[in-house]
Amino acid sequence: MEAFEKNEAPATVDFTEDAVKEYLDMCIVKWRGCPPSEMRSHYVDAFQSVRVSVFGELLPVEEN
């Protein structure tokens, strides 16, 4: 998806397993990269909650 390549959330997402997972993962990674704030943690938690509900797993934190 072109929007994912630009690290932007697309206006719509194809309703396929791969597209939804890619969208959620991109949002989680994007919010994790923001400066620490209360909003950041709420958004990461919300996207992770959806990911667990739909796919049964959290997106792990990448270790450097």
Report what the structure shows.
- The structure is a single chain.
- By secondary structure, the chain is an all-alpha fold.
- The protein has a domain of 41 residues.
- It is 59% helix and 0% strand.
- Helix 2 runs antiparallel to helix 3.
- The protein is globular.
- The model has no long low-confidence stretch (mean pLDDT 88).
Largest sheet: none
How would you spell out the order of helices and strands? HHH
Integer-rounded radius of gyration: 12 Å
Number of helices: 3
Structural class: mainly alpha
Strand content: under 5%
Low-pLDDT ranges: none
Key words describing this protein structure:
globular; 59% helix; 64 residues; mainly alpha
Offer a concise description of the structure:
The protein is mainly α and 64 residues long.
In terms of topology, how is this protein built?
Layout: H1 2-5, H2 17-32, H3 38-55
Helix pairs in contact: 2-3
